[in-house]
Amino acid sequence: MSSLNLDDFSDLIERPDGGVRRDAEERRERLAVPPGSLGRLDELGEWLAAAQSSVPVKPITQPRVVLFAGDHGVAELGVSARPAGGARDLVRAALAGESPVAVLARGSEVPVRVVDMALDCDPAELPKDVVRHRVRRGSGRIDIEDALTEDEAEQAFRAGMAVADEEADSGTDLVVLGDLSVGGTTVAATLIAALCGTDASVVTGRGGQHIDDLAWMRKCAAVRDGLRRARPVLGDQLELLRTVGGADVAAITGFLLQSAVRRTPVILDGVVSAACALVAQRVAFRSPDWWLAGQSSGEPAQAKALDRLALDPLLSHGVTVGEGVGAMLALPVVRAAALLAAELPVAPTAPEAAVEAE
After folding, report:
1. What is the reported pLDDT for 160?
2. Active-site positions?
């Protein structure tokens, strides 16, 4: 029996400060730049003000890329263009600064943190700070077996919470969230189909590497079989993560919820983080108020999840690589919104304008 009570999150998570947001809206009305002329940047600035409880908004000075890594047993079915157990190569590229998100982060002077939850490799192959939260070597094949044991599910969830606390305590003021996984989009599609009540074919996409028709059919079958196992446990979100999730997915869900508790805004990346966000929403309905959707990846499951979460992606560039790239691309937009809200001058009132004219 788990000692983790997910119901506590509903009491611990509060929405961003509505009063501060109204103050930010009033301040926006008084800026020299006409209301509405900055489009969605105005909305983002007001959201940040509420999240920070600060008017004017404080600039984003300590963002952090956080990538949770893991292999999924379902990849053995050939549902991904990458080989089963290949997530370690994604991790090595990120650590070496050679992956797309690492290149973008370096150019923006944003540190990257990789958290191994279930890579299918010897932990000695990677730095100790990367593997210290690892729960197991690869997650189970969700079409025929549970992804995790009860203890592993709780351990992974708590690890995600611990990472969120570490980031908040270190002063991180915005998290760019992503995953490094093989088989992760199949798991994500299964979770989203289960939570949205849709069929496998509706949510199954081609993945970041654009699999062919045969692989897509295998992926649909895996999602369908996973759905059969997911539906009986829909009422218990930790049990759902244990049954058809994985260690990285459970950790991301715990990370999202604890980040909301700690009032740390998060930019979601692709379908995997969207699936975790959907699970987290079922745990605490106010939690999505702390998240932004970075970009539309084109995955049908992501679109389903974001619609249910009422999150409108900031960008739509057709980027399907995953690995936090979409969220990282959205970071400059969020920083621009904060900078404009913080530094644009307030227009003089009528008496002040008259004095200046004299």
Report:
1. 98
2. 323
